[in-house]
Amino acid sequence: MKVIGDLTGVRGAEMDEVVVEETIVVGSAVAGAEEATVVFAGSDVADENWVIPGSGVAAESERRVVVGFALTKKKVNSFMQPKLLSLARKKGIFFVEIDFNRPLSEQGPFDVILHKLTDEEWRHSLEGFQEEHPEVTVLDPPYAIQNVYNRKSMLEEVAALNLSNSYGKVGVPMQLVVTCDPSSIAMEVEKAGLAFPIVAKPLVIDGTAKGHELSLGFDQASLSLLDPPLVLQEFVNHGGVVFKVYIVGDAVKAVRRKSLPNVDRRNLGNTEGIIPFPRVSCAAAPADEANLEPGVAEFPPTALLESLAKELCCRLGLRLFNIDIIRKYGTRDQFYVIDINYFPGFGKMPEYEHIFTDFLLKLVPNKYMKHPACA
Ligand SMILES: O=P(O)(O)O[C@H]1[C@H](O)[C@@H](OP(=O)(O)O)[C@H](OP(=O)(O)O)[C@@H](OP(=O)(O)O)[C@H]1O
Ligand SMILES: Nc1ncnc2c1ncn2[C@@H]1O[C@H](COP(=O)(O)OP(=O)(O)O)[C@@H](O)[C@H]1O
Ligand SMILES: [Mg+2]
Ligand SMILES: [Mg+2]
């Protein structure tokens, strides 16, 4: 493949050195240079050679994957890590921060919009933009995200799926939404037949810490201390390990995290009250494999997670999420999904920079194609 000219000026083509099959091209080019297509490989992704289609070195915006992003500072810090940005650049993917002070339609052009903001104004402007630009992929559609911001609707598709195959069974713990007066909670719980201990979770996740203020209830009398609206979920003994299963399109990767220890139901009478607990399963709390019983530490079968993820991608209409799944203690293949998070902490997902950039390129295949010589 001929390479003519050099590579500067093609915004983002700041490679000092690219490998073009056995030829090393060193230098820089002026965008819009005469003929040629450029085949280049980012130095650390040598197995992926990409050709920029069409004649001439890319005229700037028409031959690059431009991802507009609207994220909180916290999310930018945890997600936009240097290793992601540099690999993305090598693959011709450019992240452009969306300016909230200008109409979305005056920005771009974008191939993809990546977002995780909860304010209504943003949602409204994004939905308007989506109508004008159906060609732009929105990760993910606001209506689908809203579904997992409510702890009732969040798990409904998992319950409806009721996945059961030779690898195992995946359900959701018995749960009850309470919006009533606190004094009536005990009666509602008794009517629903929920067993103690019970995990009390805010019904709505609003992006603030409040949406993660969970507590454990051990006896009926204490339930009147709770502050609806809540989801009350039966506590399932699971050996102190939760599996966080990250999903990026069709890529699935599980990690182990610390979780709440088993509760001995024979001692329930000795424990009472509502006990708040911290975010026990955050990244700072990986599950220490050494102290875990073998059956507890064992990851759920990959095939089970992959079929669960595939189904939920379709049913939830989401491509970027994770699932918190636990194994019922004492069983080998009885699993419960207890939480689903939209656009979670992908920065903690092993190999996320490769997984995420490959996913983005697959979203806009006509922008780049595998050069036949490299196929
Ligand atoms: O609801 P749970 O199951 O706790 O999941 C949380 C949320 O996904 C958080 O994202 P958000 O804050 O956007 O809701 C994420 O924080 P980051 O996005 O900062 O990574 C946490 O990452 P860890 O704290 O690393 O687990 C992850 O554990
Ligand atoms: N039904 C349950 N049974 C046992 N442990 C639970 C249950 N629900 C939550 N937990 C524990 O509480 C932690 C946080 O619950 P989760 O529903 O994931 O809320 P959050 O959205 O704040 O992560 C879980 O990682 C797990 O350790
Ligand atoms: Mg969780
Ligand atoms: Mg969550």
UniProtKB/TrEMBL annotation:
UniProt cofactor note: Binds 2 magnesium ions per subunit.
A single cellular component GO annotation: cytoplasm
Any one biological process term the GO annotation gives: inositol trisphosphate metabolic process
Alphabetical keyword list: ATP-binding, Kinase, Magnesium, Metal-binding, Nucleotide-binding, Transferase
Entry binding sites for 1D-myo-inositol 1,3,4-trisphosphate: 75, 116, 212, 244, 341, 345
UniProt-annotated binding residues for Mg(2+) 1: 324, 339
Position of the signal peptide: none
GO MF annotations, alphabetized: ATP binding; inositol-1,3,4-trisphosphate 5-kinase activity; inositol-1,3,4-trisphosphate 6-kinase activity; inositol-3,4,5,6-tetrakisphosphate 1-kinase activity; magnesium ion binding
Superkingdom of this protein's organism: Eukaryota
Enzyme class: transferase
InterPro entries: ATP-grasp, Inositol_tetrakis-P_1-kinase, InsP(3)kin_ATP-grasp, ITPK1_N
Cofactor(s) needed: Mg(2+)
Function: Kinase that can phosphorylate various inositol polyphosphate such as Ins(3,4,5,6)P4 or Ins(1,3,4)P3.
Quaternary data: Monomer.
Protein name, per record: Inositol-tetrakisphosphate 1-kinase
